[in-house]
Amino acid sequence: MKLKVAMAARTLNVRHLRGTGRYVQELLRNTREPDQVEWAVYGHDTALPFRVPPGLRGQAEVFEFRGDRFHLWEQLGLPLKVRAAGAQLLHCGENTAPIWQPVPTIVTIHDTVPWEEETRGLERHYLHDVQGMALRRCASVITISESSRRDIAARWPFLENRLAVIPHGIADEFFDDAQVPLPAVLEQALGGAPYLVYLGGAQTRKRFDWALELLSRCGRDDLHLVGCGFGAGTAPLDRIPPALRDRVHIAPFLEEGELVTLYRRAQAAIYPTLYEGFGFPAVEAQAAGTPVLFSPVSSLVDLIGPLAWTNPSHDFDAWLSSLQEVLSLPPHVKAEKAEQTKAWARQFSWRSSVERHFEVYRDVVERRR
User: Fold this and answer.
1) Which residue range or ranges hold the Glycosyl transferase family domain (predicted)?
2) N or C terminus of the chain with fewer C-beta within 10 Å?
3) Residue 369 resides in a domain
4) Rounded to two decimals, what is the model's pTM?
């Protein structure tokens, strides 16, 4: 069955791709000719790059629509474009969807964090009231982990029978041997020193302070910390203790190949988040052959591989002990675990994820017929 699928892709219409944008891009990038899927992909800001992958099977368009404050691009502009394009299906891969759905609509809800954060005024009305109505009309909802499925079903019980769990994949770059250099500014800051990688950014639940405390108390004065995930101007530099400021470096935005290199050269990855719909870094670090420390919370319970060290989220002494154990691993033990992890990590394949998305698409279209 040939399908023409419209995709809301505002997270590709950005200066730098982040988690949701990577998800949308990989769906497009991993579509092959035998899939018989043609895309109509839409962005919303003509002033920014539109990071649609080369060789897109279909068309891509950026259009602006007045009333952004009231979300009219999504609620009116997008449905009008979808109808005009003759699409059979609309996929909104970025947590929200329009109420008016001229074709069967699927939404991906990555997690329920946006609904749990404190919002006010129009934003609260849009998330809680408008999206409540939109979700009732959706033909299917995709989510990325059993943890997120439980949270979604608890918040919107009427969606329980329409939920499909399809885990993310990780980029192909983690499985090849290409050596991409780090950005010169980061290379210069490190000066060849051994380092840890912190993943998460500035959000409170990501716990940058936890990583700083581990660095401070691990007993290795030669060890540095590279912080990833901070948008421009969001790094909390004032929270770095004066004694650590020469050893803590905030990474610039890294392309996929640079991120792989950063992981591979690290002594360990620190991922102290308290909640994730799907924890990319927990899988990526292991796929790169690097030990990663995290707590088995939310979706992370499903991401424990051979190179994972897990501890209760608030047991600092256990975290510190695990870090010291990782830092003292004999090279042959680390290499052996890295080899085991390659096979484990291959289950997180974007191609497999894309195929399962297409199964949901076709099921929705068949049911509508």
Assistant:
1) 192-340
2) C
3) no
4) 0.88
